[in-house]
Amino acid sequence: KMASSDVPSHAAIVGAVERLQPEAINILSELVKRGSTLGNEAQSGVQEYVARTFKDLGLDVERFPIKLEDIQKHQGFSPVDWSYEGKENVVGTHNPSSSPSKGRSLTLNGHVDVVPTGPESLWTTPPFQPDVRDGRLYGRGAGDMKAGVAAFCVAFKALKSLGWQPASQVYLQSVLEEECTGNGALACVTRGYKADAVIIPEPFPWIVNAQLGVMWCQVKVQGRPAHVLDTSAGVNAIEAAYYLFNALKELEEQWNAAERPAVYKSFKHPINFNLGKMHGGEWASSVPCQTAFDFRVGFFPGVTVAEVQRQVEACLKDAAAKRGITYTVEYSGFQAEGCEMDPKGDMMQLLGKLHKEYAFG
């Protein structure tokens, strides 16, 4: 244990981190190599690698399965229509040598699931082949947010290399499904992992103190088949789907034009509805009788999921009635409400001070 006069200087801390840069690049490269898209997390081996990395840091490591029955009745749960077989979280816990602990506890939370890659032809190099060039590392999930996981591992190791350790519990969490539900982080909370503060090192150039709510929704449209010789005899489900989504885009504009939380007043268009997936039709010369489209809805903090569902369903009902469209609505994936953190709170003030001091000198 060092005396207060031995507290590492700014230069010593920066130097310790810089000396570990090759290790940071290696950790991030190993994470990117493991293509942990939805449904492939277990076979990718990403959490197994994280567990080994946490163990090498001297942390107490727990790997535990994410079980729907443990989280589905808790606030913040998002329903799913896919299997949870093989899904697990990894938590590395630092327990201070002094007892009782003298400081306040901290969680460093990062997700290792990644979104789909899109066509590989659009990539300069294969998406799961980490490529270091011009001072950057490229690959799917490198920024969002496997770099954050690598960063907090290296930060912890840099502190140890200077002979220091946190005075209270620190939890390093590697979770799944941040990109689609948030259920991985929820599983850590229901497991009992709670701290005085949480930092999520997502790749933003500023400290984020507010988050929009996000809802995923699927609409299934029922048309009426007809031969192309007389398309007016049928109801084109694909055209009807576009019509319904255009009605939803009008709702999006209404929400952007309405009074908004102060934290979002400087944003030109913070609320966005995204048409992310569509599939339907069977034959180029037949009027399609079924189609389904999946979309994402953003909404302001302070608005409940139930209210968002009510307004979305009312919009669809009104638009469909004008054209006699038959449809159903289903919810799977994000049903996550937004939040705001007080920028004047102790943790936010301290984080801001340190960010200015160490990021900008």
Description:
It is built from 10 helices and 14 strands. 34% of the residues lie in helices and 20% in strands. Strand 4 and strand 5 form a beta hairpin. The chain has a 5-stranded mixed beta sheet, with helices on both faces. Strands 9, 10, 11, 12 and 13 form a 5-stranded antiparallel beta sheet that branches. Helix 2 runs antiparallel to helix 6 and helix 8 packs across helix 9. By secondary structure, it is α+β, with helices and mostly antiparallel strands.
What key attributes describe this structure?
5-stranded mixed beta sheet; 361 residues; elongated; alpha+beta
Note the overall shape: elongated
Number of strands: 14
Strand order of the largest sheet: 1-2-6-3-7
User: What distance separates the N and C termini?
Assistant: 27 Å
Helix content percent band:
25-40%
Series of H and E elements: HHHHEHEEEEHEHEEEHEEHEEEH
How many H/I helices? Answer: 10
Report Rg. 24 Å
Structural class: alpha+beta
> What's the rounded overall pLDDT mean?
95
Which spans have pLDDT < 50 for at least 5 consecutive residues?
A: none
Major beta sheet, specifics? 5 strands, mixed
| Percent strand | 15-25%
Map the helices and strands:
Elements: H1 10-19, H2 21-33, H3 41-44, H4 46-56, E1 60-65, H5 68-71, E2 88-94, E3 106-111, E4 131-133, E5 136-138, H6 142-161, E6 170-175, H7 183-190, E7 197-199, E8 210-211, E9 213-222, H8 237-257, E10 273-280, E11 290-299, H9 305-323, E12 326-330, E13 335-336, E14 339-340, H10 346-359
Parallel strand pairs: 3-6, 3-7
Antiparallel strand pairs: 1-2, 2-6, 4-5, 8-14, 9-11, 9-12, 9-13, 10-11
Helix pairs in contact: 2-6, 8-9
